[in-house]
Amino acid sequence: MAKINFQAARGTKDILPSEQPYWQFVKKVSEKTLRGLSFECIDTPHFENVEIFARGIGQNTDIVKKEMFLLEQTSEKEDSLIYALRPEGTAGIVRAFIQNGMSSWPQPVRLYYFGSMFRRERPQKGRFREFYQLGAEIFGDETAKSDYLAIMSTWEILNRLGLKNLKVYTNSIGCPTCRPKYITKLKKYYKDKVKDLCNDCAERYEKNPLRLLDCKEERCKQIAKGAPVILDSLCPNCKKHFQDTLEYLDYFDIKYDLDPTLVRGLDYYTNTVFEIADKNDKLRQNVVGGGGRYNGLVEVLGGPKTPAVGFSLGIERIVNLMKEQKVKIPELRGVEVCILQLGDTAKAVSKKIYDDLSGNNINVYFVPSNDGLRQQIKMASKLGAKYALIIGQREALKDELILRDLEASSQESFPKGAIVEELKRRFENCKCK
Ligand code: HAM
Question: Ligand 1 center to residue 36 CA distance, Å?
Fold first, then answer.
């Protein structure tokens, strides 16, 4: 029989224990930051009715046209429904906002989420088919305050993670009043240049002209340089909204570049759009996060007219950058103390000490054993514990135990009642927790 050799699916990867300290740190810092900025957590399903993405993200976007993983229907009764693995979080959150009547909650509603997304992209550095996003969405506030809050939250999280050398790029892509006029101007500019564009852009000219501006092909980039600038075509409301957003950023000293070619790859955006990338990533192929306003999406998916704005961060790219920039992260706490017991009388006493220690947030390992002391000490060292508590027959009968420092190989007797405070003091002093 041929040797079996299963591999993770193309574009997916295992996040091994050695990687986990980064992931846990990113998650912890992001959640703390967002909760402190009044966001609440939400989880939505990993798959949704495909129409939610098709209508929400846009039929002519790469994500919907080429990159969705569709799920086969398995139930006769649901034959009109096709599901897709979520390629991003926003459309599903909007569906949840509508379905759960969140428009009647006190506004604005601020939500955040963490989870994997799926896109059938060509795998390469920083581009996976299953990748994790941390995202946040703000519903019910049309003012620039929320655009600012979205950009500032992204910036704040990345800063608190210790990342440096980042830049915010921003633009406004207007609203349904001013954008069509701009698109007419844009198409006029491109009309006699279509033959010089890449194949994708030739199609974009017909179906999604705004995206002509952010093609990464060199010849298309050169042509885009001469294109009319959307900021010059904004209606007074959109202009004022964008100016207000920039004033907030200036006031709070968040540095940004205006990028007239930034339009983003999802159709739901209106007004402010933004991305954050490493300044060295000149082609912006590994943007760490992006977002923007999407005032029409709730209505498009069947809800009441609701302004909204949000962002998502790509966790793989953040972890990569943290490693490149050698950001120091706290180690995850493993086993800190092992209880080593000798004999049956010590068993009952050990359980009581186990409860006291774990109740005081000390990571304690205790599984009764018939092994000799030497073997148990070896096991405790192997588990990475800093201390062992040794309870033999003699200690069980007296009010004592032996506290052994496994790194220093030294030990001393301690009253049982004082051990929790003693360990807390020692961990506090050595900062090894
Ligand atoms: P997005 O720009 O498509 O926006 O994705 C956000 C971030 O997810 C990117 O900046 C990148 O870091 C990461 N990302 C995207 N695709 C991949 C991939 N194939 N592999 C690894 N990382 C990837 C959105 O998804 C919007 N939902 C953001 C948003 C929220 N807008 C408003 N609210």
Answer: 23
pLDDT at res. 279 = 95
What pLDDT was estimated at residue 106? 97
pLDDT at site 282: 86
Structure tokens at 428: 């506090």
> Between residues 428 and 337, which one has the greater pLDDT?
337
| pLDDT beyond 60 at 258 | yes
CB of 90 shorter than 6 A to ligand 1: yes
| 396 within 8 A of 367, measured Cβ to Cβ | no
Summarize the confidence of residues 191-217 as an average pLDDT.
91
The predicted structure's pLDDT at residue 429: 79
pLDDT above 90 (res 10): yes
Q: Which atom of ligand 1 sits closest to the CA of residue 276?
A: 10
Q: Measured in angstroms, how far is the CA atom of residue 378 from the centroid of ligand 1?
A: 47
pLDDT band at 433; cut points 50, 70, 90: very low
Cα(108) to ligand 1 centroid in Å equals: 23
pTM over 0.90: yes
CB of 130 within 6 A of ligand 1: the answer is no
CB of 87 within 6 A of ligand 1: the answer is no
Please name the residue whose Cα sits nearest to atom 18 of ligand 1. Answer: 127
